[in-house]
Write a structure and sequence with these properties.
The complex is a heterodimer of chains A (about 280) and B (about 400). Chain A has helices at about 1-15, 15-30, 40-60, 75-100, 105-110, 115-140, 150-175, 180-195, 205-210, 220-225, 230-240, 250-270, 275-280. With about 280 residues, chain A is mainly alpha-helical. Chain A has one domain (about 5-280). The longest helix of chain A has 28 residues, at about 75-100. The two termini of chain A are about 30 Å apart. In chain B, a hairpin with a 2-residue loop joins strand 8 (about 215-220) and strand 9 (about 225-230). Classes of the chains: A mainly alpha (about 280), B alpha+beta (about 400).
């Protein structure tokens, strides 16, 4: 059965030129016709950061943890998680719409259909990488040397890209058959966002179990840690913000979930792609 | 010598026809399944072998499955049963410029579309000038294609597809696009393709073109193969059976008549000195008059005449469009004349067929094969060999 994945990978590799062109199309057309162009891909997260910082740090007084060398900055704490989340959500939702959005291409030409989904994820990854480079520069400016962490951060980023790809492959074909999937996923993403330590530190979750809210006494931390996004966000934040190696247990979960998701997503895609040209 | 490049074995394709097409999860959950649909077989029991270097045509009514078959060959659709083996690189011209992105420049789109068709960047670099030159878009290649006219769009799409260097070219009804100059160049390109020993699979309603272009034709009827063979046999057979049931009428001589009937040719006359005749001499000044009756007004109709020898050889086929005449047909009737200052046909018996089509030359209002027969007798020039005279003058030269 893993042979399927290998054969599919080979097909994708064989048409890498097309993949490059599709990614280029995706990137070029994204901000085409706008005056600020590519600057938008940086303005958006920065604006969100400013808003969230005012709302959660200034108004609601969420305390960021103390990071490396006594770093205590909500915006930097937030950005580590926010950029990572935005990439995953954007890649999954963009990849999900890739087939429906390119219906005409699918109905009129033949090429490996996976490429459309992969191209969307890769294009999102390119933006993500640029954003993370800018974030690294900001860390350097405030005096935190994140450079030694870059290789490992990149590994986690790539792992996350495969995670998103597995998801997107599965959802993209399902979305062709059930168009409500897109709305359903948008809703789910909202819940998922708050179930991931992006705007608040994970230490706040650990307090719930022993607290006296309605959730007190439930194994909240265990349930919470089943969310693979916790591992991705926390690993990157551990390295950039806290300046130490990430915990390995959540990362193992990330790897396992990614492999399963990629395998499953590819299979579902292979099953349903044969009738794409008719269903679109 | 002619090896099979496309082999179709027992292919069947099933489509779903949805009664209530709601891709809604809620309704699907309530019903316990997705939607109600009927299945119908768009293709059944298709067995074909397409030899290398041949131009292979697919004809049939709308909905007969010919485009479905073409899409299966091009791997866009996957058959539910059977097997298709294709030996060689395919380029399919199903819709020209299908992969173009409106915001990107012509140049970017050439690279994008080329890579969809399987070219590498290096391949496209090499062919880039040819592609742009063939489309005639040198000046506009760096502007976004959203600013292109539809003609430019299609020309660029065609140009990319044809320059892919495919072993097998698949064409679906795209010959009807572009201006006449461009169409001529397309036909020349197809000819070049054919001469290079490449295979072409073409779907078209333009039966005349199919008859001229193809080496072999397959006729599909309701998803099944109704015949394969030489184009004249299959196309004629197709035309006869498919029109005889409904609007097809044969005249008293048993000759076939087809068309939708908004305009009908009532009579064709050969006029010599104002009188209707069935005989003329080579060199005579004659007029061919097409009388018609029309139910409705039709702007820009095209009248044409075909002259064949009795053995079926096509001699000439003038029409009003090529002749630069616009005919706006009004309800009622009328006639159009083709004035021939000198009849260049050589002695023999000729059959005259006539027709009237719309301005795209695709929709036929009326077509009558062998509408009349006439004889040509020896005249001036007094030549006898062949079917026509060049009207030339012989001269003796002296070497200085």
């Amino acid at each position: 059965m893993p042979l399927g994945l290998i054969a599919d990978t080979r097909e994708v590799v064989a048409s890498r030129e097309l993949l490059v062109n599709l990614v280029r199309r995706e990137l070029r057309s994204k901000y085409k016709g706008t005056a600020l162009g590519w600057a938008w891909s940086l303005i958006n997260p920065l604006a969100t950061t400013a808003i969230f910082t005012v709302v959660f740090s200034t108004v609601m007084r969420v305390e960021p943890p103390i990071g490396v060398d006594g770093l205590h900055n909500y915006s930097l704490f937030l950005l580590c998680g926010l950029l990572t989340w935005n990439f995953m959500a954007g890649a999954v939702q963009g990849g999900m719409g890739a087939l429906v959005g390119n219906g005409n291409l699918i109905k009129k030409t033949y090429f490996p259909r996976r490429l459309l989904v992969i191209a969307t994820v890769v294009a999102a990854f390119v933006s993500y990488a640029i954003e993370m480079a800018v974030l690294s520069a900001i860390f350097l400016v405030v005096g935190v040397n994140v450079l030694p962490w870059l290789p490992l951060v990149l590994v986690v980023m790539v792992l996350l890209a495969f995670f998103a790809l597995g998801f997107a492959l599965m959802l993209s074909v399902v979305n062709v058959y059930f168009r409500d999937m897109a709305h359903f996923v948008a809703l789910f993403m909202q819940i998922w966002f708050y179930a991931t330590p992006i705007i608040y530190p994970i230490t706040l979750i650990e307090g719930i179990e022993n607290g006296d809210s309605w959730a007190g006494g439930y194994p909240v931390t265990e349930i919470y840690s089943l969310n693979p996004m916790v591992g991705f966000v926390e690993s990157i934040r551990d390295m950039f913000y806290a300046g130490h190696l990430p915990h390995w247990q959540p990362l193992v979960l990330c790897v396992v979930v990614t492999v399963v998701l990629l395998f499953l997503g590819n299979r579902v895609f292979g099953r349903l792609e044969t009738r794409l040209a008719e269903e679109l | 010598m002619s090896q099979t490049v496309i082999r179709v074995e027992d292919v069947a394709k099933r489509f779903r026809v949805y009664h209530e097409r709601n891709q809604s999860l809620k309704i699907a959950l309530m019903r316990g399944r997705r939607a109600k649909f009927d299945e119908f077989w768009a293709l059944q029991d298709i067995n074909l072998e397409i030899p290398q270097g041949k131009t292979f045509g697919l004809v049939g009514h709308n909905g007969s499955g010919k485009s479905t078959l073409l899409k299966c060959l091009a791997r866009i659709l996957v058959p539910d049963r059977g097997r298709i083996t294709v030996d060689g690189k395919i380029s399919a011209l199903l819709e020209l410029g299908a992969g173009f992105h409106p915001e990107l420049s012509g140049r970017d789109n050439v690279y994008l579309n080329g890579s969809i068709l399987g070219l590498t960047k290096k391949d496209i670099d090499l062919r880039f000038d040819d592609i742009v030159g063939f489309a005639g878009l040198e000046e506009f290649i760096d502007s976004p294609v959203k600013n292109y006219s539809s003609g430019m769009y299609v020309r660029l799409g065609f140009s990319v597809a044809i320059n892919v260097d495919p072993d097998i070219l698949m064409v679906d009804e795209v010959l009807a696009v572009g201006d006449e100059e461009f169409q001529r160049r397309c036909m020349a390109k197809f000819k070049e393709f054919k001469d290079q020993g490449r295979t072409i699979v073409v779907v078209s309603h333009a039966l005349g073109t199919m008859r001229d272009m193809c080496d072999e034709v397959a006729w599909l009827d309701h998803g099944r193969l109704a015949g394969v063979g030489a184009p004249s046999d299959v196309v004629d057979h197709y035309v006869e059976t498919s029109y005889s049931g409904d609007e097809g009428v044969t005249n008293q001589d048993g000759n076939l008549r087809v068309g939708s009937g908004e305009i009908r040719v009532s009579r064709v006359e050969l006029l010599l000195g104002g009188a209707s005749v069935t005989q003329a001499h080579t060199g005579d000044a004659v007029t061919l008059r097409i009388h018609y009756a029309a139910e409705t007004a039709v702007p820009d109709a095209v009248f044409g005449i075909g002259i064949h020898t009795v053995t079926g050889q096509h001699v000439t086929g003038p029409n009003t469009k090529d002749g630069g005449l616009t005919v706006d047909v009004r309800p009622g009737g009328g006639y159009v004349d083709l004035a021939v200052p000198r009849l260049m046909l050589l002695p023999g018996t000729y059959e005259l067929s006539t027709g009237v089509v719309d301005s795209t030359m695709i929709h036929t209002f009326d077509h009558q094969r062998s509408a009349m027969r006439f004889d040509v007798l020896v005249g001036d020039p007094g030549e006898r060999l062949g079917v026509m005279s060049l009207g030339g003058q012989w001269k003796v030269g002296v070497r200085a």
